[in-house]
Design goal:
171 residues, three-stranded antiparallel sheet, 6 helices
């Protein structure tokens, strides 16, 4: 692991994680994160340094270790997936993967807001709020609204309002 990657991991550990996981440099070398199944059917996570108690029924016996993971994040995901009822597991996993895929695409896709607004402009130079709303929706942008974009462009002197839902470009 490079120094930059190690520093990044330390920052992520310190700032973003809300778990009780120790940072990499404080973690015992042989610590693993285990997915454990109780006799009651509930799955939970454990480290190899703890006495296990089922988080659902409280039992300390009749456990079956299913799998080991290198990080608490991987274990957390495995516990969540293991405790999903069988009837909805496939559908839920499919939806999670679709959402992750969309988020991955969004994070790699940069959109120039002015270009988006220009695309929403008709051949006469009119920018309609309805058309801009559709363009924003088509791009999957949920963090901005047409009202915000139009207001900012109006304040910066790029647009002038023609009527309640129409603007013209000044430049």
């Amino acid at each position: 692991m490079s120094t930059n990657a190690f520093i990044h991991e330390l920052i992520v550990t310190a700032v973003f994680r809300q778990t009780l996981e120790l940072p990499l440099y404080e973690r015992p070398m042989n610590q693993s994160f285990n997915l454990v199944n109780c006799g009651c059917g509930h799955s939970f996570g454990s480290t190899n340094s703890k006495v296990n108690f089922c988080t659902k029924c409280g039992s300390s016996t009749n456990f079956k270790s299913i799998e080991s993971f290198d990080s608490a994040e991987e274990l957390s995901l495995a516990v969540s997936l293991e405790n999903i009822p069988n009837e909805i597991r496939d559908e839920l996993i499919s939806k999670i993967k679709q959402k992750e895929h969309r988020l991955k695409i969004k994070s790699t896709k940069t959109i120039d807001v002015l270009d988006l607004m220009k695309l929403a402009t008709d051949k006469n130079g009119n920018l309609s709020k309805v058309v801009l709303d559709k363009k924003i929706s088509d791009e999957g942008l949920t963090e901005m609204t047409s009202e915000y974009l139009l207001g900012q462009a109006e304040m910066q002197g790029l647009l002038v309002r023609v009527d309640q839902n129409t603007w013209n470009w000044l430049s």
